[in-house]
Design brief:
The complex is a heterodimer of chains A (114) and B (113).
Chain A lengths: L3 E4 L2 E4 L5 E7 L5 E8 L3 E10 L2 E4 L6 E3 L9 E3 L8 E8 L9 E2 L3 E5 L1
Parallel strand pairs in A: 2-11
Antiparallel strand pairs in A: 1-3, 3-8, 4-5, 4-9, 5-6, 7-8, 9-10, 9-11
Chain B lengths: L3 E2 L5 E4 L4 E7 L6 E7 L6 E6 L3 E5 L2 E6 L4 E6 L8 E11 L2 E6 L3 E6 L1
Parallel strand pairs in B: 2-11
Antiparallel strand pairs in B: 1-3, 3-8, 4-5, 4-9, 6-7, 7-8, 9-10, 9-11
Classes of the chains: A mainly beta (114), B mainly beta (113).
């Protein structure tokens, strides 16, 4: 049981290209999240999803698009990559959206935009 | 913007000592508090969660919460070199009807053998 997987694990792209980062979970958790982690900023929420077909913006959504047609998948698309989107991207899941819910993180995707 | 603040460190302690990691938060309505450990190049993994004022112990780890002072801490007893990592404090705050994690930037801990 892999839990949460992310692909690709490493990606190099060029400015202006479209990039899609994949996140897949086997736990049937309702909630899924995308974060980016940068030095000096910590983890910042990009988008989250409470269930299939329900998504909402986080703290830093500009330049990103998400979809969730199936409970287990939550892809993140950079429509036109910029150098400022060079970062480590983590997908996370949680069983629910309540106050005490624990988030579980995937292994991350390191993205470099040239 | 609701904030969670941590000293970035590095906090250096000798092997066998107690490491004390601190975190303050700004949202008085926060209800849940979490400590994650993140090794270099890896993803965050949950160490402890705490919801009520006081101490919560799990093995060598103790989380302490003081809601009146808006302060949460993590103590690591008998620190080992394998504890060297960045420790992230996370606070679950309610924003626009939804609970969201707010993370601190992390404290880097170095346990010296």
């Amino acid at each position: 049981d892999a839990g949460i997987t992310q692909s690709p694990r490493y990606k190099i792209t060029e400015t202006g290209r479209q990039v899609t980062l994949m996140c897949h979970q086997t736990w049937s958790h309702s909630y899924m999240f995308w974060y980016r982690q940068d030095l000096g900023h910590g983890l910042r929420l990009i988008y989250y999803s409470a269930a299939a077909d329900i998504t909402d913006k986080g703290e830093v959504p500009d330049g990103y698009v998400v979809s969730r047609s199936k409970t287990e998948n939550f892809p993140l698309t950079l429509e036109s990559a910029t150098r400022s989107q060079t970062s480590v991207y983590f997908c996370a899941t949680a069983r629910g959206g309540g106050a005490g819910e624990t988030q579980y993180f995937g292994p991350g995707t390191r993205l470099l935009v040239l | 913007q609701k904030e969670v603040e941590q000293n970035s460190g590095p906090l250096s302690v000798p092997e066998g000592a107690i490491a004390s990691l601190n975190c303050t938060y700004s949202d008085r309505g926060s209800q849940s508090f979490f400590w994650y450990r993140q090794y270099s190049g890896k993803s965050p993994e949950l160490i402890m969660s705490i919801y009520s004022n006081g101490d919560k112990e799990d093995g060598r780890f103790t989380a302490q919460l003081n809601k009146a002072s808006q302060y949460v801490s993590l103590l690591i007893r008998d620190s080992q070199p394998s504890d060297s990592a960045t420790y992230l404090c996370a606070v679950n705050s309610r924003t626009s009807g939804t609970y969201k994690y707010i993370f601190g930037t992390g404290t880097r801990l170095k346990v010296l053998a």
